[in-house]
Amino acid sequence: MTTEVKTNKGGGNGRYPAKRVAKALREHHGMIYVTARALGCHHSTIYSKIQKHKIVRDALEESRGHTKDVAEDVLFNAIKKGEPWAVKFYLETQAKDRGYVLRTEHTGAGGDAMKVSIDELGMLIARADKENGRVEDNGAEDNGKVLPFPKALPDEKAKDRW
């Protein structure tokens, strides 16, 4: 006895055709996991359809664009009502050109200037260099302790920074 196995390469006519997925995405406002649950499939199926089918990508973009419009409308109405949080959020994110910028200051005790020792400064520079790929990791661990000022410079260019 032979068993016939149907495969659905391309996903066009299977259990989750692209048009069906696109329609479901629109109905569920572009929410991937909610759409997958509604269709009875895994979320990876939806992501796969998005990658493979323009109609599904377009449905996702349209749905998310609509959701952004709704959110902006709610924000705008809150601004019109004078809600302080809404006004502050809008100005900090959309009016930087007018000087509305969130500024964070770091100070020491009592608002004085921060005091950093040479060893601490060296540690901060070394960490920044390591994180930005400017020096190789030498395997040293700080375990929350201040690392000593580097004794050997990793390259000739680094000399200019010290």
Structure description:
- This protein is mainly alpha-helical.
- It folds into two domains: 18-98; 106-135 and 142-149, no CATH class.
- Helix content is 49%, strand content 0%.
- It contains six helices and no strands.
- It has helices at residues 18-27, 32-39, 43-52, 54-80, 84-94, 118-131.
- Helix 1 crosses helix 2 (32-39) and helix 3 (43-52) crosses helix 4 (54-80).
- The radius of gyration is 28 Å and the shape is flat.
- The termini are far apart.
- The model is unreliable at 1-11 and 143-147 (pLDDT under 50).
Low-confidence stretches: 1-11, 143-147
Share of helix, binned: 40-55%
Helix/strand structural class: mainly alpha
Reading the helices and strands in chain order gives HHHHHH
Roughly how many Å apart are the termini? 79 Å
Largest sheet: none
Strand percentage: under 5%
Total beta strand runs: 0
How many DSSP helices?
6
The radius of gyration is: 28 Å
In total, how many domains does the architecture comprise? 2
Shape: flat
Mean of residue pLDDT?
81
Descriptive tags:
6 helices, disordered N terminus, 162 residues, mainly alpha, single chain
Helix and strand layout, with pairings?
Layout (H helix, E strand, L loop, with lengths): L17 H10 L4 H8 L3 H10 L1 H27 L3 H11 L23 H14 L31
Helix pairs in contact: 1-2, 1-4, 2-3, 3-4, 4-5
Question: Concise description?
Answer:
This protein has 162 residues and is mainly α. It is built from six helices and no strands. Helix 1 runs parallel beside helix 4, helix 2 packs across helix 3 (43-52) and helix 4 (54-80) packs across helix 5 (84-94).
